[in-house]
Amino acid sequence: MVAKVSNKQGASPKSFQNKLERHDRKTQIVADLIVIVICLAVLFLLDSVLDSSSMIFVVLKKTAVYAVVAVSMNLLNGFTGLFSLGQAGFMLIGAYTYGILMIPSGDRASVYQYFDGGIVKFSLQEVFAGIFGGNAGVGIFFGVLIALILAGVFAALFAFLIGLPVLRLKGDYLAIATLGFAEIIRALFQWNTIGGLTNGSNMLRKFPSFDSIVAGWAAGSPFVAAHIPFFSTLLPMIIAAICISLIVMLIHSSYGRSFKAIRDDEVAAEAMGINLAKHKMLAFCTSSFFAGIGGAMLAMFQTTIQANAFKSSMTYEILLIVVIGGIGSVTGSILGAFLFVAASEWWLRFLDTEMVFADAGTKTGFVIFAVAIVALLAALVIVKNRGKEKKDFRRIAIIAAAVAFIVIAALINYLVSPSMNVPLLRSGFRLVVFSLIIMIIVLFYRRGIMGSRELNWDSVTAFFMKRRNADKEGGEKA
Amino acid sequence: MDWSVVLPYILSGISVGGQYALIAIGYTMVYGILRLINFAHGDVFMVAGLMMIYFSASMPMYYSIPLMIIFTVLLGYAIERAAYKPLRTAPRMSIMISAIGVSYLLENLALYVTGGLNQNYPGIPWISDSITIGGAVTKRVTIITPILTIVLVVALILLLKHTKFGMAMRAVSRDFDTAQLMGIDIDRVISVTFIIGSFLAAIGSLLYFTNYTGVVPTSGAMPGLKAFVAAVFGGIGSIPGAVVGAFIIGICENLIKGLDSVLMVNGITSQQFGFATFSDAFTFVLLIVILILKPTGLFGEKQTDKV
């Protein structure tokens, strides 16, 4: 999917210009299609090779959800320069719109058990099934489609109302005001007085999820039934691909250029005749529209939703995804979403389980290895800072030595203790390591993985050409 | 109108307001100098609470309280050095993101250390004792908080107005670059700002958590946000503003918590509306109202944009 994004203004050095132009639009589309087919084939292969409960499917599904929200946030923060922290609130509106409209009417009594079955008595999927002569499959298709769009529309509508007063604010004030609105929305949806609509502080459940939709297809088709993980992963990815393509099209339109102009210099943009209020509102509403769809997708992924889960920490997570990927890069956000979800849910999972050393020898080996690493790191820090002023250098050296000493002392203390458990590993350690990695990215790789560049055919060919030219130059020199 | 129903809510509002004020000063001072919303400040406050729990489990109060304050101050100082100082020349958004990262790290660290379980806050002798004021039973901390808050704020303002260092701090918050040119050691001023902020947050956490049963890793997020709102409400950068804002927010929040029962007791309504759900959200309503009506806050100075 990544290759779909094409970036025309990426300045490439002149020497490649001729070669690059050969990759005209048609070749690019063919190449995009090939990449998509390869992705699908890999996914299909994974489905037939791996167990259906493999984490990769869960990770890919959640990545699709987070990618939509991250790209929508990037549209605002990265491309328009509006620092908004309201994403969780708009996701909440989307998730609830989807849930409220899609819970089958037969299940409403049990879901809204404290509110006499709620005040919404219909379900979109049944409405559409009725229109198409009782065909449940078609009903679900149109039901989900319309519910997703409505999820976006309601989020955008709220965004419009919020945007009227808030978009006049600048910088930090805008961030804190949107954060505040997200909190107000969260409280509003938990209010028991309107529980007939929102089910108050209770969960919404039993609406169609990715899995239940695919299970519905599987009932009618043995082929789908044989490849359930493939289809239930494909479904969110298709929705995500459509949403992200639409955002990319917007970014490449004249509106997108105006957004970037506003980001780079508001006053200059205004002087160029760009209507600031209109464009900011457009970016804000579009971003919220897709955040709403992302929220609906999150509901489909999680199978249950509760307003209390849409806290500001959810917005922070999405912001960190955008930062990891690179502020102002769509492909970066997608990549960031994948890395974020995969690392936090899957790759680092082993850190959460306690492990025991097989024998004293392994334990000793581990401690020696750890001591060596700590000593090496401390030495590296000291050597690296040698060039600094004497006062600074001495302070850094003392701190590095002291930290190393404490860690080594702890390790030796652990060595003589009878415990055979691998140190630190237990529930929750995964997230500590994860947040440390994020801090390292934030501090030392501020521009994220992609910076503001995009991963597309231009950048890929430019990358390989540069390598080849570098090789050639190297060869000529030799 | 039966005021005896309202009194306990006003009392606890004043108390919570004082605690928010102590946190809000940390926000407002840091914002005044670095133009940074220090999202990690609420989590420093939470960590202070956790440290108190762990220290008091192994040593008597007269050791654990000073120790907790010292370590909280060190934490605040270390965060500034490690996470904000390297980004001093970076765009402001990077520092804010770094602050969010630190907040994420502290919460996860707390989750790891506590195992996600609620940790019971120790009862602190004397200030946790129950007393009766005007028929309302409350803890002594309710009375101590506003007094202590006012004393600390007056001390802080005296420090800012009448010492050389306070003058340096005011100069830095007025104009970062010029202050640097005048030979003020910026790094030192910023460090001291964080130290003062963390010190007040430590005291605030001592008073705040006495009223609650325990501390969880997310305990700091809401009070932190509310204290920040208080700082914005009063005019960010202004210490008296932050204090006034914090008291207003604390009292409003508690009145809304009690609105249902007040209305019921006085026979104005016969039905529960569940307004208590909005006790947190109302803070943000106040924020948005003030941002629209007077974006610089109650006591804020007018800022002009330079093109």
Quick structural gist:
The complex is a heterodimer of chains A (478) and B (307). Chain A is an all-alpha fold.
Describe this structure in words.
The complex is a heterodimer of chains A (478) and B (307). Chain A is mostly helical. Helix content of chain A is 73%, strand content 1%. In chain A, strands 1-2 form a two-stranded antiparallel ribbon. In chain A, helix 3 runs parallel beside helix 12 (228-252), helix 3 packs antiparallel against helix 15 and helix 4 packs antiparallel against helix 7. The radius of gyration of chain A is 26 Å and the shape is globular. Chain B is mainly alpha-helical and 307 residues long. In chain B, 71% of the residues lie in helices and 4% in strands. Chain B has helices at residues 3-34, 41-58, 61-84, 92-114, 141-162, 164-174, 176-181, 186-210, 221-234, 239-265, 279-293; strands at 119-120, 130-133, 136-139, 214-215. In chain B, 51% of the residues are buried. The model of chain B has no long low-confidence stretch (mean pLDDT 88). The interface between A and B is large, with 49 and 49 residues.
